[in-house]
Amino acid sequence: MSTISQSQSRREAVEVALWQMPSPESDAATMALISDIQSEDNDQAVGNKAGGDGSSLPELGSLSKFGSWESVASTIVHKAVTLSKFNPGSATFDPVAWNNFLHKFSTIPFFLTYTYDNRSASISKISLEKGVNAVSDLVENIMTPENFKGIVTTIKKIATLALENEGQKQKNSNQQVGVLSRHKKTLYLGAVRTDVQMEYKSGKGYEQLQQDINVYRGYGVLDFEKCKRNAETLLKWDGQDVDDWEKDTASSSKSPNNSPAWNQ
User: Fold this and answer.
1) Distance CA 242, CA 71 (A)
2) Bridge-based pairing state of the strands 186-201 and 111-123
3) What is the CA radius of gyration of the chain?
4) pLDDT tens digits, 1-51
5) What is the pTM of this model?
6) Are strands 111-123 and 42-52 parallel, antiparallel or unpaired?
7) DSSP count for the chain of H helices, then E strands
8) Which of 188, 189, 183, 161 is CA-nearest to residue 174?
9) Which residues fall within 8 angstroms of residue 95, CB to CB, at 6 or more apart?
């Protein structure tokens, strides 16, 4: 394990402690804006997927209790979920928790770097391929093509959940894919987000409208040495095994949506 100076160690401790502070309460003006969003018909659909190329990662050392670096990572993401009061297992959209989670995730103090970008795509009820391609463009550098197939399956499960979530005639489905990817001796923690407008058709259920969507991708590179230096803190957190992290969403038990539109 790498050694650092006493002053740097103190700075790390402060950084981690500050990150663990709960998200601040919203003021009256912000709550008024939020109430407008909540008055619209929104739901959420979340799915998580871990994958890897089999490349080696450093020894866990003092973090051996976790069993794998993937479980260290899923525990860290779970902490971000808890701090933001985000519920990936719920179809109810909470705009405060939704935004707070992304802030907590993007500022995780155990990242070497954090990168984010966006892609735009056009989709319709008969063509979803461009949406999948946009996700592929965003994550292809952090996973193998084989692992991306698992992400596509997760997206299709999210689609099934979104179509089942009952709401008004028109609704916005806020969708997120959580990603853990072991790739080329690096562990990436990612989040891919989009929102899709849907309309209810009598006798058919919900279908997505013709629309342009924006796909957000953010990912961090896990700092193994920093994690080990702060093992005492991480071991006190509510641990979540990577397999449980994958299951901790409302979409995990769904069957993938099998619409032919995925290939058009």
Assistant:
1) 5
2) unpaired
3) 19
4) 667 888 888 999 999 999 999 877 766 666 666 666 655 688 999 999 999
5) 0.93
6) unpaired
7) 9, 6
8) 161
9) 34, 37, 38, 42
